[in-house]
Design a protein that fits this description.
alpha/beta, Rossmann fold, elongated, 5-stranded mixed beta sheet, 2 domains, 15 strands, 4-stranded parallel beta sheet, about 425 residues
Length: about 425
């Protein structure tokens, strides 16, 4: 007998999270004997708690296929972390009520580390509350900090965008540095792990090629050392390009750009490490500078997505369904690299208990000895992830994106207050 499935997106979206959604939905449609309708949660897990469900089964095959080349989160995402089941039992009982009311037996949660934690908690519902449910985490995060998996879907496209932007901006600065800007600072995402900042290093291949400095969260920030390196680059090459992670921090763990606030997941909110660093350059060295914050642009740039990333994002969505229909509860489809040259990979199941609430940082052997660049080993790891182009279709000069009907499912239960 077929039962229904629930799919939702969580956390910061990526250029390819909808490709994973496409993989999940298309795979579900290939298993009509086991999976009936697919419901998407409007705004992630909140959609399940509030019974705000979207009937994906009413979307056309063409609309679902278009998700593969559409950025953003087609069904809405959220930053909402389920609390402990012992102290917030009402939330979990509500989930079961909604799942039972709509005959949902498969749960697919598409997100990063905190989403893995949510999925793990949901996977434990069948045992603790006596409801049969198979929960699979679909990996996604631009930060590339999920453990076990070789890389995280979403990262390869951000890496490609940042490497490209670093290269292009460097040519701009180099052409003007004799009479204008000497220092350019590009701020990229990465709260605790410097993977995205490291990707900027792919822009330069040899001595003197930018970026001249990469500032990682994993390396304690030393103002005097950084300023000395900036000064050296300007005097030697005429200009200096810096890629800095938003999570850059001092020896004591304090962020350079700590706003003093926290987000819904309890993370410190960071704001403006690029202008902070640029201000130091002005104060200490007096050089004219410009700075930019990649911000949402880096994770929304589907027009410059890595083909490798798109293919992997779709593949983990497909594999998630295969694991679910095989009865593999509390799992995540993880990417396993089988060869560097030629690059090859496969998808294997990984237990959520070994993924939730854990982070993967840049290994020491990927950071140059001086702490300001990447090693050849890092370049060998990163380079395959940005390979290939997967341009979306264009119409009237702009990318054509999916347009979903987003039909709501009729509510059957009383309202629930979060």
């Amino acid at each position: 007998m077929a039962h229904n499935a629930f799919y939702a997106q969580s956390g910061g979206v990526t250029a390819v999270i909808n490709a994973s959604a496409c993989g999940v939905i298309e795979a579900c449609r290939r298993h009509p004997d086991q999976i009936g309708k697919v419901y998407a949660g409007h705004n992630g897990i909140i959609g399940a708690l509030t019974e705000d469900l979207i009937d994906v089964s009413r979307e056309s095959d063409e609309a679902i296929a278009a998700l593969r080349h559409t950025p953003g989160g087609a069904f809405g995402s959220c930053r909402y972390k389920l609390k402990d089941i012992e102290t917030h039992r009402a939330q979990y009982e509500r989930l079961i009520e909604v799942f039972r009311a709509h005959d949902i037996r498969y749960f697919f949660y598409n997100g990063g580390g905190d989403s893995a934690d949510t999925c793990l908690k949901v996977s434990q519902l069948s045992e603790k509350l006596g409801y049969p449910l198979t929960a699979i985490h679909v990996p996604k995060t631009v930060d590339n900090d999920l453990p076990i998996t070789d890389n995280s879907p979403g990262f390869g496209s951000v890496a490609k965008y940042i490497a490209t932007s670093t290269l292009e901006a460097s040519l701009d600065i180099a052409s003007m540095c004799a009479t204008s800007t000497k220092v350019f600072v590009l701020e990229v995402m990465g709260r605790h792990a410097g993977w995205i900042a490291a990707a900027g290093g792919l822009a330069g291949q040899g001595e003197g090629e930018p970026p001249h400095l990469i500032i990682f969260p994993e390396v304690a920030f030393d103002r005097s050392a950084v300023m000395a390196r900036v000064d050296e680059a300007v005097k030697k090459y005429g200009y200096c390009v810096i890629v800095v992670s938003e999570g850059a921090r001092y020896e004591d763990g304090t962020f350079l750009a700590d706003s003093g606030n926290t987000d819904a997941f309890g993370h410190r909110q960071l704001g403006g490490v690029a202008p902070t660093l640029a201000g130091m350059v002005k104060q200490d060295l007096g050089y004219k500078y410009h700075w930019a914050v990649a911000d949402y642009l880096q994770r929304a740039a589907r027009h410059l997505a890595s083909r490798t990333d798109v293919e992997q994002a779709y593949a983990v969505g497909q594999k998630a369904v295969e694991l679910a229909v095989a009865g593999r509860n509390s799992m995540m489809p993880a990417i396993k690299r089988t060869s560097d040259a030629p690059y090859a990979w496969t998808i294997e199941p990984a237990p959520l208990a070994e993924i939730a609430n854990r982070e993967k940082f840049m290994p020491a052997e990927y950071i140059s000895e001086d702490g300001f660049g990447i090693t050849e080993a890092c370049r060998q790891y990163l380079s395959p992830l940005i390979q290939g182009e997967d341009f979306p279709p264009f119409e009237n000069g702009l990318p054509r994106v999916a347009k979903l009907a987003l039909h709501r499912v009729e509510r059957k239960l009383p309202a629930f207050t979060l």
